[in-house]
Automatic annotation (TrEMBL):
This is Ribonuclease J. Homodimer, may be a subunit of the RNA degradosome. Its main location: cytoplasm. Keywords: Cytoplasm, Endonuclease, Exonuclease, Hydrolase, Metal-binding, Nuclease, RNA-binding, rRNA processing, Zinc. One of its GO terms (molecular function) is hydrolase activity. It holds the Pfam family RMMBL. An RNase that has 5'-3' exonuclease and possibly endonuclease activity. Involved in maturation of rRNA and in some organisms also mRNA maturation and/or decay. Gene3D superfamilies: 3.10.20.580, Metallo-hydrolase/oxidoreductase (3.40.50.10710), Ribonuclease Z/Hydroxyacylglutathione hydrolase-like (3.60.15.10). It comes from Nocardioides oceani. Substrate binds at residues 375-379. Its EC number is 3.1.-.-.
Amino acid sequence: MSHPHPELSEPPALPEGGLRVIPLGGLGEVGRNMTVFEYDGRLLIVDCGVLFPEDHHPGVDLILPDFGPIRDRLDRVEALVLTHGHEDHIGATPYLLRERGDIPLVGSELTLALLDPKLREHRLKETVHHKVKEGDRLSLGPFDLEFVAVNHSIPDALAVAIRTGAGMVLHTGDFKMDQLPLDGRITDLRAFARLGEEGVDLFLTDSTNAETPGFTPAETSITPVIDRVFRESSQRIIVACFASHVHRVQQVLDAAHAHERQVAYVGRSMVRNMAIARDLGYLKVPPGTLVDTKDLADLPPQHQVLISTGSQGEPMSALSRIAQRNHNFVHIEEGDTVLLASSLIPGNENAVYRVINGLARWGARVVHKGNALVHVSGHASAGELLYCYNIVRPRNVLPVHGEMRHMLANRDLAKATGVENVVVAEDGVVVDLVDGVASITGKVDCGYVFVDGSSVGDITESDLKDRRILGEEGFISVIVVMDSVSGKVSAGPEIHARGFVEDAVDFEEIKQPIIDALDRAVAEGNTDTYQLQQTVRRVIGRWVSGTHRRRPMIIPVVIES
Ligand SMILES: [Zn+2]
Ligand SMILES: [Zn+2]
């Protein structure tokens, strides 16, 4: 967890007529996006997403934004605006609603539909929904919202313009500028220009690909590659992609139809999301193409296609289990083709290559980003961002959605087009827009909130440190029984180790030094159990680090008898 800006303290009271921006997630990381806007004592939240844990978060299921800074003001929240249906934008919504269930939710048809099963999973029934589409305007308290179509790697994404007495904010959400998208719905640059003419005082822009020069290639550039893979495959084809990438699934369905194959979905979220997308008309399934997994298995392999989750190597996903040949009904065979039609999110490299190796070991041909153009990003590259700055001509810019390097690259792009004031802030850093000028005015405490099984926020960074030590170094327990009358060791030390050195004989040489140290401590008048335990810990800890160069977790137990 980073604590940037040690020089900053709590921000002063917001001047009348000013707008405060409090980023609670997504600035300094790719994930758990959440930004709070405050005007005239009222709050508006844009997005409420999750971050997926990495190897240094053992046992953690999800990471949430920290609601701490607004927890005592949840009654003042006018609405939560959801820009699109990706997990890093909607995934934490149920956790926020568990704290106040009737926060109005504002989003497009598909975004709200993808959120719905999550709300039901958390048994949230009394939720309030405002379904909006591009061009709509909606007034909530002092916030006047206008929605703008943007093109991204999920359909029905929206940018949002927020008008208040402090001026106009334009938040792009996640976007790119594919000029020939599969659904024909382009980023509405005419609206961006119109808002720019009116005057955008603060422009929040997606930084994800700010370091990537040029333009993000069109989605349609993948179509011939998918077609070639289908043409060259004489057996079963398994395609893995994000369970929300409706357009990628559409491309695979179309290719399957053209090559006389039938398709089944594998993985709970894929089945669920694609049913939603189909019901709402965002996914057009060619007649007769989609079948049950059971029926698919009855077809000859050259007529089978599976569309699966697990493109990031997630250990419990369908694709991981297929690679280990322990999936219930999909048995990978020599000559099968696996197509990973997805990006490789930083941090997932090892997991993804483990899956690729596993599949290749069974004789499958694996086509992935590293050897073919099977994925294009959902985010605007530098060239597209430059266009946006020139079209919108904002007074102030706040780069969002990215690690520090992405946000700094985005700042440089804005500056290159002549934007004078670009504010780079991380999570918790407060930015005020007062008299048309945005500046950092303070910071609020906000950290990572870990979800572990059913517990939310109980696991701390120090628990994770313990888990990492246990995982990497193992642990040693030392049990000593002391006679409370004589002050002498009456049994033990009994030493057990797990994940360290299994052979108990190794510990023989340290037993006497422990007894001697305890004798000395008692002779010096230390009879407190806690202090005696610390003595044991010190002796064995020094020995372990000296002889074995290791720092396992040590659990000393002194029992008085
Ligand atoms: Zn997204
Ligand atoms: Zn995102």
